[in-house]
Amino acid sequence: VQLQASGGGLVQTGGSLRLTCTASGATFSTVAMGWFRQAPGKEREFVACISKGDTTTYYADSVKGRFTISREGTENTVYLQMNNLRPEDTAVYYCSAAPPAADDTNYRALLALLTKFNTWGQGTQVTVSS
Q: 114 with 103: CB under 8 angstroms?
């Protein structure tokens, strides 16, 4: 699967953005998908992920209640709706795919996949001004 992320931009504190990740290839329905981000001078960190069956999601504590991940199978697309943005959300955001057919059938299995995401799209810059 190949990934293409878009939707980043400059917003003020409290604003919203929706990131889109479009996947090409026949394996989209077989992979868990995730969003990660990397701020300047920091390591890349996990943001959110969703199981291939769209039944389970998991969020980093820093974005829980503000961000929502979703996927649209017919369009091979994953979204990240980001509300109530803060300056500390400023980063390059990357979408990613887990290995095909990896177990994500429950919350614990999805958590175990966080270190196994191995397909990455190019990033999209999100900047939140104070």
A: no
What does 11-33 look like in DSSP terms, one character per residue? EETT--EEEEEEEESTTGGGS-E
Q: Which tens digits make up the pLDDT trace of 45-58?
A: 999 999 998 889 99
SS3 annotation, 57-111: EEECCCCCCCEEEEEEHHHCEEEEEECCCCHHHCEEEEEEECCCCCCCCCHHHHH
pLDDT tens digits for 24-82?
Answer: 987 888 899 999 999 999 999 999 999 998 889 999 999 999 999 999 988 899 999 99
Tokens representing 67?
A: 């961000």
Distance in angstroms (rounded) separating the CA atoms of residues 1 and 34? 13
Helix (H, G, I), strand (E, B) or coil at 112: helix
Backbone conformation region of residue 83, classed left if phi is above 0, alpha if psi is from -120 to 50, else beta: beta
